[in-house]
Amino acid sequence: MKLFSKAGLAAILIGLGLGASAQAQQEIKVGVIYPLTGPGAAVGAELRNALELAADIINNGAKDIPELPFSAGKGLPNLKGARIKLVFADHQANPQVGATEAERLITQEKVVALVGAYNSAVTATASQIAERAGIPFLNPESSSASLTQRNFKWFFRTTPHDDLFVHNAFEFLKELEAKKGIKPGTIATFNENGLWGTETTKLQAKLAPEFKYSLVKQVIYPAKTTQLTSEVQTLKAANPSLVLQSSYTPDAILSMKTYKELGFSPDMILANNAGFTDTDFIRTLGKDAEYVITREVWALDLASRNPLIKQVNDLFNSRYKINFTGNSSRTFTGLMVMADAINRAGSTEPEAIRKALAATDIPGSQLIMPWKGVKFDASGQNTLGSGILVQIVDGKYNTVWPFNMASRDVIWPMPKWDLRK
């Protein structure tokens, strides 16, 4: 009797729909789309580091951290030790480039899934390509609420979204008044004009009156701008006590420099993450970054509540000489969640991975995030994520809200520029 060759047997198995699960997969390609050049290159480099650390742990282990999934190493056990291979794409913070790169990763690189893309506007276009192709797309960081309001079947997001984050900001202000006796005063918003910034602006305009706050001015500036003088002059003329701000790294830094140059000194800047939590923000501004409060999803000082935070951060710091940020910690978590789904699927078939993602139920004890866990609803949104607020004091991010998790008290108001040491 003639036996089938390995190739012949593989063809039969694949024809029966069994090939991916029945055969050992030596390498599983996962496409990762991030801003590796252009205005987002600095944060993109950190996100790449986070992805590479996660892939290394999945493939080779982290035996000193047994509580971490895949810490035993040697790849995905349900796929006979298959290793994750990251295929990087650079979207340059350009939505059209992101869509083109998603197409390339799917059609030419033959990736089994996509992870990305930090910038909400790029995530929107890249995930549309994945949806049409029937390829799972996991988004670890983009927070535009509309991303999980599109009735997509293949899209999953692990981070909380801006509807929660903006609510958090106003809840903090109410608690600040009730528990600390600090009244925020009048509010202005200052946001970039991309998908993320414009959606945030609408949410802030809706929630301010609901929470009984006076919104005296809304200023939207061009994304990727190189000057903010006129916009900051408009803000200064409105004389708000508090500025709610959504900016990516270059414009977050530029805005702070412009505030100082023009002598604009509100009582507080309450930022919406992104550029304000990038390592380059404090590194570039030094003492001029002090006292800003920003929403976050991760803080090193929460390690007292979750030892995994310090253990994995120590590993990250030993390799890259920087700490995790809310951005990079979410990216790390995103790839770990995707690997968990592929492993549980026991297959590289897109539909099997999609079903495994939909069935995800990871407890908070296995995450480096201060969340209850990861579990997706029908829209693909993780329902167990949460936000915190941190304040920059002495060059570090300190948890200040929720108050029962705070590592230090809020400093309010910020000292005026000419009174800072």
TrEMBL record:
<feature type="domain" description="Leucine-binding protein">
    <location>
        <begin position="27"/>
        <end position="393"/>
    </location>
</feature>
<protein>
    <submittedName>
        <fullName>ABC transporter substrate-binding protein</fullName>
    </submittedName>
</protein>
<dbReference type="Pfam" id="PF13458">
    <property type="entry name" value="Peripla_BP_6"/>
</dbReference>
<comment type="similarity">
    <text>Belongs to the leucine-binding protein family.</text>
</comment>
<dbReference type="InterPro" id="IPR028082">
    <property type="entry name" value="Peripla_BP_I"/>
</dbReference>
<dbReference type="InterPro" id="IPR028081">
    <property type="entry name" value="Leu-bd"/>
</dbReference>
<dbReference type="InterPro" id="IPR051010">
    <property type="entry name" value="BCAA_transport"/>
</dbReference>
<feature type="signal peptide">
    <location>
        <begin position="1"/>
        <end position="24"/>
    </location>
</feature>
<keyword id="KW-0732">Signal</keyword>
